[in-house]
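User: Hey, quick favor. My workstation is busy. Could you predict this chain's structure for me?
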Amino acid sequence: FIIIAYDSGKKFNPNEFISLLNDENDIQYISKILLDDKFTDEGQLQGYINIVSIDNINMRIKEKKSTYNNALKANDIETANEALMQINSLKRAVDLIKGGAL
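Assistant: No problem, here it is.
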């Protein structure tokens, strides 16, 4: 949300962004960053955005791994393959955020 607002030239509204978060830890973390005057450096802010993004992606990877394992147990190869493809895509997203190569 922050990146989209920034890239599109729209004025960023911290309260609007915070209202979109579901995890209480993320809400507290982002609130501190956005509302604290010492966090005004764009590079530093981008680093924090990356941390939250990676955490959220890792939670989705964990969910997909559970789906994958359950599908294997149920001998549902199609669902297992779909989950595995999603896991790989999410891992590539993490690599991109970290600046890694595909």
